[in-house]
From TrEMBL:
<feature type="transmembrane region" description="Helical">
    <location>
        <begin position="60"/>
        <end position="82"/>
    </location>
</feature>
<keyword id="KW-0472">Membrane</keyword>
<feature type="transmembrane region" description="Helical">
    <location>
        <begin position="102"/>
        <end position="126"/>
    </location>
</feature>
<keyword id="KW-1133">Transmembrane helix</keyword>
<feature type="transmembrane region" description="Helical">
    <location>
        <begin position="36"/>
        <end position="54"/>
    </location>
</feature>
<feature type="transmembrane region" description="Helical">
    <location>
        <begin position="201"/>
        <end position="223"/>
    </location>
</feature>
<protein>
    <submittedName>
        <fullName>Uncharacterized protein</fullName>
    </submittedName>
</protein>
<keyword id="KW-0812">Transmembrane</keyword>
<feature type="transmembrane region" description="Helical">
    <location>
        <begin position="6"/>
        <end position="24"/>
    </location>
</feature>
C-alpha cells in the first residue's frame, strides 16, 4: 500500500489526535494545558500541510498560503496603517471610509470563495452533485513535490459534452488510465470541480474552511476599524463641547 493510499487514514488519525489533545487541554490547567494545546495546534497544522503537499505539491501549497494568508495580512496591515496616518494628519476629525470598503471587499471575495468551495464539496455527501461517466482521454502521475497528478477526459451532462483538460486528481487512489470510463461526481456550482470520491470532496471542503479564515479575519478588522472611527468621532465631540463650555 502506497503512502497516498494510506493518507486518508493518517489524516483522520492526525485530526482526531489534534482534537483529543485540544479537548484534554481544555480540561487541564497550568503547564499541561499549554503543552496539550500547543501540540494540538502543531499536529493539526502538520496534518493539513502534509495533506496539501500530497494534493497540490509544494508549489501549490506555497501559492495557497501566499494567497490566503500572507497577501491578506500584508494588505490589511497596509490599509490599516494608511487609514490611521490619514486620521492622525487630520487630527482625528475624519472617518476614512475607503480602507474599510477595501477590506470589506476583500473579505467578501474570500467568503464567497469559501462558500463556493465548501458547498461544492458538501454536495457530494448529500447527493446533490451531478453523477456522470468520465471517459478518460489522458492522465499524468505527478510527483507530490514537483508536479501535479492530473486527468483529462470528457463527460455528458444535461445533454452537453464537457471536456476536462489536465484537471488535478485529488482522489488519493489509483489514477485511471487513458481509455477507461469511471463514475465521478461534478460539483453543481461554477467552476464545477471534479469530485472523484469522498476524500476529494472532503479536501475541497477543507480548502473552503481555509479560505474562510482570512475572510473572517478581514471582517473583524473592518468592524474594529469602524469602532475606532466611531470612538474618534465621539472623543472629538466631547473635546469640542468642553471647549464651548469653557
Amino acid at each position: 500500500m502506497t503512502f497516498e493510499e494510506q493518507l486518508p487514514a493518517l489524516i483522520v488519525l492526525g485530526y482526531g489526535a489534534a482534537a483529543g489533545l485540544g479537548y484534554l487541554g481544555g480540561k487541564w490547567s497550568g503547564r499541561a494545558k499549554t503543552w496539550a494545546l500547543t501540540l494540538a495546534w502543531l499536529l493539526g497544522i502538520a496534518t493539513t500541510v502534509t495533506w496539501l503537499v500530497v494534493a497540490v505539491g509544494v508549489s501549490g501549497l506555497v501559492t495557497i498560503v501566499s494567497l490566503l494568508v500572507f497577501a491578506p495580512l500584508a494588505i490589511t496591515y497596509l490599509v490599516v496603517v494608511l487609514g490611521r496616518l490619514r486620521r492622525r494628519r487630520a487630527g482625528g476629525d475624519i472617518d476614512s471610509v475607503w480602507p474599510r470598503m477595501f477590506l470589506g471587499g476583500g473579505a467578501l471575495c474570500f467568503l464567497i470563495l469559501a462558500a463556493n468551495t465548501m458547498i461544492n464539496g458538501l454536495t457530494y455527501f448529500i447527493g446533490l452533485a451531478y453523477d456522470v461517466e468520465l471517459h478518460v482521454t489522458g492522465s499524468h502521475q505527478g510527483s507530490s513535490m514537483t508536479s501535479r497528478t492530473t486527468v483529462s477526459g470528457e463527460y455528458l451532462l444535461h445533454g452537453e459534452n464537457h471536456v476536462l483538460d489536465h484537471v488535478q486528481w485529488l482522489a488519493f487512489e489509483q489514477l485511471p488510465a487513458a481509455g477507461e470510463t469511471i463514475r465521478v461526481a461534478i460539483g453543481p456550482l461554477w467552476p464545477n470541480p471534479l469530485l472523484a470520491n469522498a476524500t476529494n470532496a472532503g479536501l475541497l471542503m477543507a480548502l473552503g474552511i481555509v479560505a474562510a479564515i482570512p475572510g473572517v479575519l478581514l471582517t473583524m478588522v473592518v468592524a474594529r476599524e469602524k469602532a475606532n472611527a466611531r470612538n474618534h468621532r465621539e472623543q472629538s465631540v466631547v473635546v469640542e463641547d468642553g471647549r464651548h463650555d469653557g
